[in-house]
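Quick note —
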Amino acid sequence: MKNVNLSLIFIILIINVQTVLSEEQSPFLSDLEKHLKTKTSAQGGIEYDSNVYKTLDTVGLKDDFLFRFFLNFNSNYNLNKYDSIIFTYQGGAKKFIDSDDKDTLLNSLKLGYRGIFFDKNLVAVEGNIKTKDERGSNAELKEDYFLTWVEMRFGRTIHDFLDASADFQYTYFDFDANDNFDYQRGRYGFTLDKKFSRFYTADVGYHFSNQNFRETLIGFGDRVDTKHEFLTSFEADLLVLSRFSYIFEDSNSNISGLSFTNHRFSLQISRLFPWYITIVAQGTFQIKSYPASEFVDDEGQRYLLTESEDENFNSIILKISKKLYEDLFLEFKFSRFSNEFSDKEDPFRRYLYNLSVRYVF
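Predicted structure written out below.
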């Protein structure tokens, strides 16, 4: 119910902001409009989910159709030519045809500041709150959570076409179904970006994180995970916009069996075609030994929790968008998640097919 109220409050606020800016302007509102830039989009459609409960198996999976809705509001208020304040709200909902217990509400709120000092120095601060609320009555399978993080980033242009940045992020995660997944995490590191020309860009980076889990696992003591992460990527803007990245992760836990290493390869390509058609293809391939966040019921069936397929599995995503009118788009999206080339004995497959209409105003 709290998420429902939060969604309604922000939807009403967004509508009022859009209405005020479109009406006849007073001197104050006219000045506000010069500095405030907003963009809002609403999207709705139908989706097919081949594995609603995210079951770790290939037989007996529950599939279903659902209606998916999404609202995105972005605003940028320029205090001056160097400083700006960013506000973003995203709200989403899923309504299943048969699997009512998986009906979901999502809310995300972000507030940030970005400033440039002495022409070459960047300071950015962002904070985010995200909530998820599922309708289901089975508390062990519900994925309700509260997530918040705060990030500070400092950057400097060392010389032409070479930028360096350092960042620190604090994250707090509260998972309603199982306190053993609750954690606090500190993450910090650096990134170097090099622009070779208007067409080619590359970067390298390193991050270290320390993740403390709030609850005590029986027989093991307090769980603490530390992780080293090395990143390199390359981007080219030629006939198509393409980006390739490689990440190596080495995570060590004080609980035996929960440490892992991972090689993550990602490739994204996109292009605008004639007749206002845009195609975006993205693939992620991982060679990983990992501990999955899962729940086992009385019959021995295993289910994934905490949206872990987003991080643990290979994925293929294809998105095709067709501009129908000035602000109206028809979109098709296909997603596939799987766990080939991991150390898990139980296979996982999930397919999503989505057809939707998006309106920008």
